[in-house]
Structures are given as structure tokens and as C-alpha cells.
Amino acid sequence: MSDGRSGSGFGGESLLFLTDEQLRQGIEAMFFAYQGFTADPDRILAELAYGRAHHRAMHFINRAPGTTVNNLLSILGVTKQSLNRVLRALVEDGLVDSRVGTLDKRERNLYLTDRGRELEQRLSDAQRIRMRAAYKQAGPEAVQGFKKVLEAMMDADMRRAYADLREASQ
Amino acid sequence: MSDGRSGSGFGGESLLFLTDEQLRQGIEAMFFAYQGFTADPDRILAELAYGRAHHRAMHFINRAPGTTVNNLLSILGVTKQSLNRVLRALVEDGLVDSRVGTLDKRERNLYLTDRGRELEQRLSDAQRIRMRAAYKQAGPEAVQGFKKVLEAMMDADMRRAYADLREASQ
DNA sequence: CAGTTTATGTCAGCATTGTTGACATTCCAA
DNA sequence: TTGGAATGTCAACAATGCTGACATAAACTG
After folding, report:
1. Residue A13 predicted with pLDDT over 80
2. Which residues form the HTH marR-type domain (chains A, B) (predicted)?
3. Which residue of A has its CA nearest to B155?
4. What is the DSSP-derived secondary structure letter of residue B78?
5. What would be the CATH architecture of the domain defined by A22-138?
């Protein structure tokens, strides 16, 4: 594992020879970049006594209005109990509307209220500004590669969720 | 902010026109990919009653042996109190060695013990395997773009830390 | 159709890891 | 040498993971 090399065999099979050092750079880049990625919304959230968990919930409710708790937690990769706490706060504060399902009354369909949409917008805007700046700085070809590697890094079910979301917005 | 367009002006200045939708895909890719990125070490850590914080500390101590608490917390972006709790556990468990600084006795120089190196290796290996697979799947050109965008996404001080680490390993 | 099982969501309590505040020790500068 | 700054530790609190217990609704089974 730690011979500092990677590749399928002695040669020929793959053109990629990745040293442990190269891989470590990628790992560290991922770590540092994620800090920047979340920094701007985090600052806004801190003012409002909310956290990242609230942001994530609002993001995906906005993305798929009417989604259920069950669906949401599979996307977020947390337990329903953990998500529940966050949703309760958002509902109490009037940012999320939770309606008993019409077809299946066990389910709750989730929607952002006007105020919820407003905050989500504010958070997304902050995050998009950084994303846009990074994309511009890196250039168009880089963006392709960026997305490719990220997608390849996802677990299978997350890759599916990701594809579903993209297709959902036409 | 939300006109679905991005660019410096009406045209000509930039060749990149990024819709909010494109940016959102990047944001979601980042979120889902980070889950995958941390999933494998997380599984190992859970067995050992450690968390991500322990992994991060061990990673950077391994990367820069003899580093101080102060330096470490600036890299990790957490408070010294938060880091301290994690370090205390690692020292007690014999994975990290904390030596009073020779030049400045207020400082503590941190080193992995043999057992610490062993666990760090195990965690890194798991993470590298996924990274390597993602790189291979995405291809060499993609890797360049990936790193470029990530670096552009970092906060300035993290970009500096990232550069320092790379240079430190020749 | 009655009774049991499964699915969905809520409430309670615990663990990890972030935070701030108070403090001891050491260094440095006036 | 004395007061302030820097470094690190200890304590207590908050956010957000987790598991377990439970209520309700739906679905299945005989």
C-alpha cells in the first residue's frame, strides 16, 4: 500500500502512476478547500444561531420542494433523529413548512416558507460567489476535471442522488 | 445575485458565463464528494472510538513532525481548546508524543509514536485508495483541474498552509 | 376483516467536537 | 524587574452526530 506507487501493474495497463505524495496533495487540497467552501455560509449562520445542518436541510428542501423527511435524510447521510432536531427548529422559526402527506399520512412533505427561501438564497449566494470566483480563476477546462474527480469520489448512492438532482432541474 | 448569470460584465471581459445552476452543481458535488472522501477513515475510526478530529491531528503531525500545538491549530482551523482535548486523548493512548519545547518551554513539540504512525498509515491508506480510484476514473487532465479549482476555493491562509506543506516534502 | 409486521416520524439521552472563559507558565520588552 | 503577550491546559456549554423507545399509519397475512 505504501510503496509510493499506484497503477494496475508493471506498465502498459494504465498511464497513471500516482505517488503517495501526489495523492496526499489531493487529500489535503480537499480538506483545505472544504474549509473555504463552508466558511461564508458559516459566518452568516453563526449570526442567526443556526449551523451547517440547517443550511444543508434548507438547501435540499429548496431543491426538491415537497420532499419527505425520509428522502432528505438519505441525501444528507444522517439519521432521522439528527435531522429531526434541525427540522423542528426550522419549522418553529417559520422557515420550513411541514405538511402531513396526502397520499401517505405517515410522511411529512417539506417546503420552504417565504422567509426560508429568503435565507436559503442569502446562504447560497454567499457560496456561489466563492464558487464562481474559484471557477473563473481556475478556468473552464479545470471545472470539467473538478466535477469529474468529485463525482468519482462519491459513494455510489450519493452519485445516484447527485444525478437525480441534476436531472430534476431539467 | 440571482439572475442566473455570472460574468464580469455584459461580454468580452470574460469567456466564462456560469449559470446559478452550474454553480449549484459544483456546490452539491463538493458536498457529496466530501462524504465519500471521509467515509473510509470514518469507518476505521469508529471501531477505535476516535473521530475525524483525531485523524486530522495525526495526519498533520505525521506530515510535520515536531510541529507545535499553535501551528497545528492554525492549520486545522479550530480553537486550541478543541484541539487540546483530542491531543490529550492521543497522548494518553500512546499515539502521540508531546515534548516540552527546548527553545521555548511554553511550546509543545508533537510527534507520532510508532503506534501512532501505524494508525495514521492505516487511515491514510484507506483514503488514498479512494483518491487513487477517483483519479484513475477521471483521468490525468481532470486531476489538474481538480487541484486548480480546489486551490482557488481555499481561504488565503489555507492556501499558504497548503503551499508550505507541499514545499516541506521537497 | 383482525392481527401482526413494517415504515415513518418524534422524543429523550449520550458522545464527539466545536465554542468561550479562566488560568498557569514562560517569554519578552520597557 | 515587572507588566504584558504568547502558549498551552482545564472546565463548562452548544451544535450535531448517534442509539433506543415509542406513536401512528400503512401494508401484509391468515
Report:
1. no
2. 20-155
3. A36
4. S
5. Orthogonal Bundle (1.10)
